[in-house]
Amino acid sequence: MTHVEDELNSQPECWNRAAAQAAEHAPALPAPGERVAVIGCGTSYFMAQAIAVLREAAGRGETDAFAASEFPHGRAYDRVVALTRSGTTTEVLDLLEKLKGTTRTTAVTADPATPVMSLADEPVVLDYADERSVVQTRFATTALTLLRAHLGLHTGAVVEDARTALTTPLPEGLVDCSQFTFLGRGWTVGLANEAGLKMREAALAWTEAYPAMEYRHGPISVTTRGTATWMFGTAPDGLARQVRGTGGLWVGGTLDPLAELVRAQRLAVAVAAARGLDPDRPRHLTRSVILAP
Fold first, then answer.
1. Residue 281 pLDDT
2. Which terminus of the chain, N or C, has less C-beta within 10 A?
3. Cα gap 237→192, rounded to integer Å
4. Which CDD domains match (predicted)?
């Protein structure tokens, strides 16, 4: 078993721990009414997108998501939440250093022995969700679970759905597809983006991700026999029928969208295996992006 397989299989237990610790970490997490920006890089940026939509939709306050390198310094925020598994990513550390003393910052990380611990005002450590693999799985979903629980949006049913996602066979013919499109609505757009990234990282697959309705404004033209379209959450009326009409494979999300992401992680590993690739050694990637001065 690869590191990434072992780590993605451990997600239900990690989510249970994060949910149980949400109250303990509450003082470091955004309070109701705060204007918040959530930042990250790569996978963490896509989790930030999901968190931002969930928090604002829950009525907790205006919430934006940015890639750390694209943070708008002309805007005022009460708090910036940084998601960083390694605690060493250059863009995240540079931003936290610039914000120090002017904006309250929280860092959610997996490694307490890294520079982010001193740069953030309030670090939150999820060391039990750290990973050996380059390809992120459990840290990202555990950080998102912590924030969902903090918002009162996590239930035990989510964990049970994750267990189902780990044990139910993938749809027949899915692994053999040549192209994959992931769709979301609201907070699940971030999950769709992350599913596409997992497929590219682990399996070198041709993948795309869109808000579900935007898919009809052009991207559906690439869908045909031998391609797959996977929906995270409830699909717009008629979309499944239109995809099937192209000859493409439609995968409807039947589980909690975060559990659907676990299924997509499994797909990335399965496609990598089918193509003779090692998902623990993704091409051109490292565990943390550290830019030399």
1. 82
2. C
3. 19
4. SIS_GlmS_GlmD_1 (cd05008), SIS_GlmS_GlmD_2 (cd05009)
